[in-house]
Amino acid sequence: MIKAVIFDLDDTLISERKYIESGYHYISNLLSLKLQISEKELYRLLVELFNQSSVNVFNRLFDTLQIAYTKNEILELVEHYRNHLPSIDFFDDVVPCLINLKKRGLKVGIITDGYANSQYKKLDAVKAFDYFDEIIVTDELGREYWKPHPKAFEIMKERMNFEFDEMIYVGDNPKKDFYINSIYPIRTVRIAREYSIYKYELYYENIRESLKVTSLLDLNKLIQNDVGE
Questions:
Q1: N or C: which end of the chain has fewer CB within 10 A?
Q2: How far apart (Å, rounded) are the C-alpha atoms in residues 94 and 27?
Q3: What pTM does this model have?
Q4: 31-51 mean pLDDT
Q5: How many degrees, rounded to 5, is the angle at CA 170 between CA 215 and CA 96?
Q6: At 229, is the pLDDT very low, low, confident or very high (cuts 50, 70, 90)?
Q7: HSE-up of 166 (CA within 13 Å, CB side)?
Q8: In the predicted model, what is the mean pLDDT of residues 52-77?
Q9: Using CB atoms within 10 A of its CB, is residue 160 exposed (0-12), middle (13-18) or buried (19+)?
Q10: Does domain 4-14+89-227 have CATH number 3.40.50.1980?
């Protein structure tokens, strides 16, 4: 019987794209006065450069503008980006899903990778701690324990006091979210968001999800029989 549903964060509960856009708005505002370039134009350039490649976007912005920069200036921008309070919301299906799960007596949690300060800003922005029983930011365990490492799942099992086969993990990233079911009997569900940044990633070790949904509202239907209804 399923007793807990654990979720990934980025592109599962919130839009990673919206987070990135929020960060670029923030950085554009910071740079506008310094560079004497309109915030709107800087934001346009950042999004355009990101759409071309997500690598070294700030460096490439200065290169495009033909403005000299130092490594420390780039690192400072990255810190500002990671520490900004993002303008983001849960996807529309998240809160209704959580309400239904809790009505059925299930516990809900989050296991999320990413730099801890950034992830906590995202969690704070959507008031995640008001909705979830347990949240694990794997960066606090050490970068080597980011998914697909099983450590966070082991900790979640102990904190929530359930067995692995009583747990569902919902994620979106084939590179790291579904490999856990080759280690422990955790059922995995892939949420296929239309604009997921990771939708075309290859499966790690070709380990696939147990089930796939296009809305978290479908998740409630899938687990209905597993909670004794």
A1: C
A2: 29
A3: 0.94
A4: 97
A5: 45
A6: very low
A7: 17
A8: 97
A9: middle
A10: no
